[in-house]
Amino acid sequence: MAFAGGMTVFPGGGVDASDRPDPGAWSGPDPAQWGERLGCGATLAGAFVQAAVRETFEECGVLLAGPGDTAGLHHERAELVARRRTLRQVLADAGLVLRSDLLHAWARWITPPASPKRYDTAFFVAMLPAGQEADAHTTEAVEAAWWHPSAALEHWQRGELQLMAPTFRTLQEIGAFADSAGVLVAAGARVFEPVMPRLKRDGDSIVVVLPGDPDFDTAADHLPPGGGS
Fold first, then answer.
1. CB-based burial of residue 179 (10 Å sphere; 0-12 exposed, 13-18 middle, 19+ buried)?
2. Within 13 Å, how many C-alpha atoms sit on residue 23's CB side?
């Protein structure tokens, strides 16, 4: 992939033009409530949630929707991946609505201004709904699998996985809990602001410094050109 090639990442992707919430096919906290939670406008927040549900279905076969049977939508999933149908159409034809209550906001990361490409990314956690099973049927990854956070971090520390800063920090955070239920409880109680890493020159290299790191207060949002990359 052009972005993050070779990295191990969570399921997800970019907001699509079709990721416009339909109030008639939406259950749970509305976009305005999500905007308050994520610290952004209702339109962007609704698109974040809609995209998260769509991408999870496309990449994992897990559909955060209801009520009723969410299994057996293999053809609809393929149509969605091929962009021949939208999530709104898939839900409407199946008699389902998006369930935003199954998602819990975990963090929002924004790349620093100096980055040549900037991203505004929301991270969510969710419990696997009863009767559903995540699969590895995605063309966007070489491999897809379940990882326990601590195991993923051990492989990263040994150089066997490549992780971007938001991924390893999130793994560190959720790995502090004994089980998924604990993560969901913590997500509901989290008070967070968008995380924007800073940059620090280290010899000929520029390194990313995260909030909480010792050098964060002295690092910069921008670095002058020259002296490495």
1. exposed
2. 5
* Lowest mean pLDDT segment, chosen from 51-65, 98-112, 185-199, 205-219: 205-219
**Residues 220, 200: contact at Cβ < 8 Å?**
yes
pTM of the model: 0.88
74 burial level (CB within 10 Å; 0-12, 13-18, 19+)? exposed
Indicate whether 44 belongs to any domain: yes
Token duo for residue 102: 């199954």
Residue 31 within a domain: yes
- Total number of domains in the chain: 1
8 A C-beta contact, residue 21 and residue 99: no
Q: How confident is the model at residue 122 (pLDDT cuts 50, 70, 90)?
A: very high
Check pLDDT > 50 for residue 196.
Answer: yes
- Per residue in 49-72, pLDDT (tens digit) is 999 999 999 999 999 999 988 888
Ordered DSSP codes for 68-105: S-----HHHHHHHHTTSS-HHHHHHHHT-EEEGGG-EE
Q: DSSP character for 115?
A: S
